[in-house]
Write a structure and sequence with these properties.
Layout (H helix, E strand, L loop, with lengths): L26 E6 L6 H11 L4 E2 L3 E2 L14 E2 L2 H9 L3 E7 L2 E6 H9 L3 E5 L2 H10 L4 E6 L3 H11 L4 H16 L6 E4 L3 H14 L1
Parallel strand pairs: 1-7, 1-8, 2-7, 3-4, 8-9
Antiparallel strand pairs: 3-6, 5-6
Helix pairs in contact: 5-6
Bound molecules: adenosine-5'-diphosphate (ADP) and guanosine-5'-monophosphate.
Adenosine-5'-diphosphate binds next to helix 1 and helix 5.
């Protein structure tokens, strides 16, 4: 069992003031990269090793893929319900991606951070940019594919998106990859184990 010492880790500016009576706040980690690059796969492995990491569950207007569970993979909502969440200021960030709306419910994330947890947001580029404005010290990580060809292979092999959705995702992938240098760390997901180790280093050691 890996033991993580909290003392020397970076704080990303989310820690409370240093007074000894003030409780420590948690950390916000943004995890971005083109659809199909392996973000979900990496996060599943990471959370098996570090179950104390919290993963924010987003709201989306996208239809569930086979096997996806409401409230676990996403909160699947109608466009009207999503727009109401936006109007009520309930989202930390939100964006349109490949024809669907995606957003991070604010209340749960803030609650987790206030309770001292480390919270991961797996979100696309526009949302990551919004979080950079509101939480400038959040750790921002970007996952790159070894090549665009391999990215397309992975999306197709996953076998859960229709052809038009795949085309929109690949088009968007180019824009996202061009913005990778905006992020604090870039991780190439070629060999999964190597990428996982780089991810662990970025979160716990760098
Ligand atoms: P994302 O969450 O970024 O959309 P997924 O985690 O769903 O991507 O991964 C897309 C597909 O790529 C899945 O079928 C997954 O098993 C596969 N995959 C992920 N990482 C690797 C890797 N390092 N090498 C080969 N295939 C991978
Ligand atoms: P997918 O449909 O493949 O699950 O997700 C498509 C894209 O939406 C991915 O890049 C994913 O990271 C992103 N995404 C998921 N949830 C959110 C969210 O809450 N906000 C934003 N901005 N993007 C999200």
């Amino acid at each position: 069992m890996t033991v993580i010492s909290p003392a020397p880790l970076p704080t990303f500016g989310l820690d409370a003031a240093p007074e000894s009576t003030t409780p420590r706040l948690g950390r916000l980690i943004v995890f971005t990269g083109p659809s199909g690059v392996g973000k979900g796969t990496l996060l599943r492995s990471l959370r098996q090793r570090y179950p104390m990491l919290r993963l924010s569950v987003s709201a989306t207007t996208r239809a569930p893929r086979p096997g996806e569970v409401d409230g676990q993979d996403y909160f699947f909502v109608s466009r009207e319900a999503f727009q109401e969440m936006v109007a009520q200021g309930e989202l930390l960030e939100w964006a349109e991606f490949a024809g669907n709306l995606y957003g991070t419910p604010k209340r749960e994330v803030l609650k987790q951070i206030e309770a001292g947890h480390w919270v991961i947001l797996e979100i696309e580029l526009e949302g990551a940019r919004q979080v950079r404005e509101t939480f400038p010290n959040a750790l921002q990580l970007f996952v790159l594919p070894p090549s665009l060809e391999e990215l397309e292979n992975r999306i197709r092999l996953r076998g859960k998106d229709a052809d038009d959705a795949i085309a929109r995702r690949l088009q968007r992938a180019r824009v996202e990859i061009d913005a990778a240098s905006e992020f604090d760390r870039q991780i190439v997901n070629d060999d999964l184990e190597v990428a996982l180790e780089q991810l662990e280093n970025a979160i716990f050691r760098d």
